Amino acid sequence: MTLQQLRYIVAVAETGTITEAADKLFISQPSLTNAIRELEKEMKILIFHRTKKGIRLSKEGEDFLGYARQVLEQAAILEDKYKGRDGGKKQFCVSTQHYSFAVNAFVDLIKEYGQDEYDFSLRETQTYEIIEDVAHMKSEIGILFLNDFNEAVLSKILKSHDLKFHLLFVATPHVFISRNHPFADRSILTNEQLAPYPYLSFEQGEHNSFYFSEEIFSVSERKKQIRVRDRATLFNLLIGLNGYTVCSGVIDEQLNGKDIIAVPLAEESHMRIGYITHQKGSISRLGTTYLEALKHYVDAEHRAVRKSNYRESV
């Protein structure tokens, strides 16, 4: 097995075809095909399924791809350190629920490592996809929350995928509402007070179970519910319809705008927000830098929330 063969596997997986990968790698299609088959024979696994519709990763291939990417990242670090090179194009991916601090940390990562060439991905996606991304090592880090309701189910799934949860902070549940909402001047809100207003949440696709929800009390019956896919749509509906959603209370005006505020929510279990990693993998230099930035923003924003709540209570 060679580093070049691993680069071939990554290129084919990214492009989805032998033809495009060969063009990208500046080699002939037969040479690329033979190199992949030799690697499959050596590793005694089938990395790609070949069908009439094209080529796709096998289950074993998905696992192998994750390890291949880690090996190439470590090789790049060695070249950077001992050859005086930049180690080639930097690659990094994180999958997350919809948190502003995850975006801010990603911006800091790019500022530090965004050289002439890089290929970074930030996936604000559904909870189950976050777990799958890290399980298949498509993403090095996944960010989500646990609470009393979902912890037993999610912890079981994480364990079955060889994933580990690392706590970042414990958050008191808040609601995001418009600054012009009738309850905008309240220091705390209850579910009963919010019941007449539209309840907004992020839809979870085919895994639209209460346990995968980003909102901690979505098991409760709501007269008015709206599910969306992206942050911008959710905030526009919050403002336009006087809707609300449940959150950690961490808010960023640059990302969320000045028209959205966070108000504490009464009588709900705390959110344990953290990140997941693969137990068989190791955190890369890029991953370490991202986590450092993440903890910086979490600490700063969480202190601001506690300070704001304290002022409102006195």
TrEMBL record:
<dbReference type="InterPro" id="IPR036390">
    <property type="entry name" value="WH_DNA-bd_sf"/>
</dbReference>
<dbReference type="GO" id="GO:0003677">
    <property type="term" value="F:DNA binding"/>
</dbReference>
<dbReference type="InterPro" id="IPR005119">
    <property type="entry name" value="LysR_subst-bd"/>
</dbReference>
<comment type="similarity">
    <text>Belongs to the LysR transcriptional regulatory family.</text>
</comment>
<dbReference type="GO" id="GO:0032993">
    <property type="term" value="C:protein-DNA complex"/>
</dbReference>
<dbReference type="Pfam" id="PF00126">
    <property type="entry name" value="HTH_1"/>
</dbReference>
<feature type="domain" description="HTH lysR-type">
    <location>
        <begin position="1"/>
        <end position="58"/>
    </location>
</feature>
<dbReference type="InterPro" id="IPR036388">
    <property type="entry name" value="WH-like_DNA-bd_sf"/>
</dbReference>
<dbReference type="GO" id="GO:0003700">
    <property type="term" value="F:DNA-binding transcription factor activity"/>
</dbReference>
<keyword id="KW-0805">Transcription regulation</keyword>
<keyword id="KW-0804">Transcription</keyword>
<dbReference type="InterPro" id="IPR000847">
    <property type="entry name" value="LysR_HTH_N"/>
</dbReference>
<keyword id="KW-0238">DNA-binding</keyword>
<protein>
    <submittedName>
        <fullName>Transcriptional regulator, LysR family</fullName>
    </submittedName>
</protein>
<dbReference type="Pfam" id="PF03466">
    <property type="entry name" value="LysR_substrate"/>
</dbReference>
